[in-house]
């Protein structure tokens, strides 16, 4: 997802508090029997970022991002809510405050945890000058060490979401490294992810949710080659290698710790299930053209949110974002994420019930 961060002109930074409120948690959504999380800590990239990325660095702070929620651009890479918001809703808490906005948040808001994810980042450094996952965990560790926001007793019911959605791989491709090196690089990415997971657990987080990589070969930036008709199976085969290594790493970690510490969120199959849904999954929308994004640049040099020097918009947007699974060339719409989490609900519930 190399193209998800576009260098755009600078906006003045100001904050409206409405922007930082995520999905409201409610008791109705409180399905945890064995384990009742009260805090969510989030690490990763644009699938999870809810407003850390700098306005000057990202299209996610430009119209039409955020038009569904919160109603204007606020840093999420979608028309509305993203993975973090839906996981928070699932566990029954408010979406955690982005790290960048922590000093503007009241104590009450901080109690739901914190989101350290930055769009465009990976476990290694990517094409954007933003904190990789190691540095994000450093931020978390520094906050714990300072001890003024969270006490160690706060962690007995904490959950982490660790999103690794492909920026390491788009960086690999952008560097024109030979395809023959891909499998070894995938191993490095998974090994580094394992290091990160171990570290987050050692810092005291009790449950750690790890999404499998989504089918990258089905992202609109790739399927544009077939007019959004077909996924690229050779890319999905590499994704499956990543996912099987990641599942092995998680099995090893669970064996070392306690069987149910690390939870796999199978985004790969959830995406495919939603694409194929013809009504069998009532909670999931049936998308007519699931691979076709809602918001696209008018030509290949432009993206969702692009404007030219005169401020003329260089993208088109679908009539109803709820009718599209994908928002832009690599990110789901809010309705897309809602459908994915609907498909995942049963397996997530089973994972969280294990104390
Ligand atoms: C993360 O970023 C820091 C700062 O750029 C760098 O020193 C470190 O090597 C990076 N970590 C990994 C695992 O690439
Ligand atoms: C799939 O992606 C690979 C690698 O990016 C590319 O070489 C190949 O041409 C693509 N296949 C199709 C059918 O588009
Ligand atoms: C789990 O750990 C035990 C003891 O450390 C080891 O003997 C066993 O092979 C491990 N199982 C797996 C699936 O890794």
Question: What does the model show?
Answer:
- The chain has 355 residues and is an alpha/beta fold.
- Helix content is 32%, strand content 8%.
- It is built from nine helices and eight strands.
- α1 crosses α9 (334-353).
- The longest helix has 24 residues, at 233-256.
- The protein is globular and about 50 Å long.
- The two termini are 36 Å apart.
- The model is unreliable at 1-32 (pLDDT under 50).
- The structure holds 2-acetamido-2-deoxy-beta-D-glucopyranose (3 copies).
- Residues 251-252, 255 line the site of one 2-acetamido-2-deoxy-beta-D-glucopyranose.
CATH superfamily: SGNH hydrolase
For the record, the CATH architecture stands as 3-Layer(aba) Sandwich
Strands, total number: 8
Largest sheet: spatial strand order: 2-3-1-4-5-6
CATH class: Alpha Beta
Please trace the helix and strand order, writing H or E for each element.
EHEHEHEHHEHHEHEEH
> What is the domain total for the residues?
1
Count the DSSP helices. Answer: 9
Q: Indicate the percent of residues in helices.
A: 25-40%
Bound molecules: 2-acetamido-2-deoxy-beta-D-glucopyranose
Note the quaternary state here. single chain
Radius of gyration: 19 Å
Unreliable sequence segments = 1-32
The residue-averaged pLDDT reads 89
């Amino acid at each position: 997802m190399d193209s998800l961060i576009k260098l755009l002109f600078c906006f003045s930074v100001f904050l409206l508090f409405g922007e930082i409120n995520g999905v409201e948690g409610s008791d109705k959504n409180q399905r945890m029997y064995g384990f009742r999380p009260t805090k969510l800590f989030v690490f990763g990239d644009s699938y999870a970022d809810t407003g850390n990325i700098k306005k000057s660095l990202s299209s996610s702070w430009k119209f039409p991002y955020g038009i569904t929620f919160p109603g204007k651009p606020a840093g999420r890479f979608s028309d509305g809510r993203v993975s973090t918001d839906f996981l928070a809703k699932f566990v029954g808490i408010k979406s955690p405050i982005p790290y960048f906005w922590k000093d503007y948040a009241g104590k009450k808001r901080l109690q739901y945890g914190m989101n350290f994810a930055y769009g465009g980042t990976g476990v290694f450094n990517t094409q954007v000058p933003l904190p990789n996952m190691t540095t994000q965990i450093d931020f978390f560790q520094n906050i714990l060490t300072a001890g003024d926001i969270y006490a160690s007793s706060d962690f007995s019911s904490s959950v982490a979401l660790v999103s690794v959605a492909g920026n390491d791989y788009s960086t690999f491709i952008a560097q024109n490294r030979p395809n023959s090196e891909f499998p070894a690089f995938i191993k490095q990415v998974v090994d580094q992810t394992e290091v990160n997971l171990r570290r987050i657990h050692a810092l005291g987080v009790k449950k750690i949710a790890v999404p499998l990589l989504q089918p990258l070969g089905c992202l609109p930036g790739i399927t544009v080659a077939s007019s959004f008709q077909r996924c690229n199976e050779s890319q999905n085969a590499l994704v499956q290698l990543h996912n099987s290594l990641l599942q092995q790493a998680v099995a090893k970690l669970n064996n070392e710790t306690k069987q149910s510490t690390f939870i796999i969120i199978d985004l790969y199959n959830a995406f495919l299930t939603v694409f194929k849904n013809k009504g069998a999954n009532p909670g999931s929308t049936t998308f007519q053209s699931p691979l076709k994004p809602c918001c696209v640049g008018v030509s290949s040099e432009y993206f969702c949110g692009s404007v030219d020097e005169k401020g003329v918009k260089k993208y088109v947007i679908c009539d109803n974002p709820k009718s599209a699974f994908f928002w832009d060339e690599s990110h789901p719409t809010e309705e897309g994420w809602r459908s994915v989490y609907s498909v995942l609900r049963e397996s997530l519930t089973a994972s969280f019930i294990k104390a």
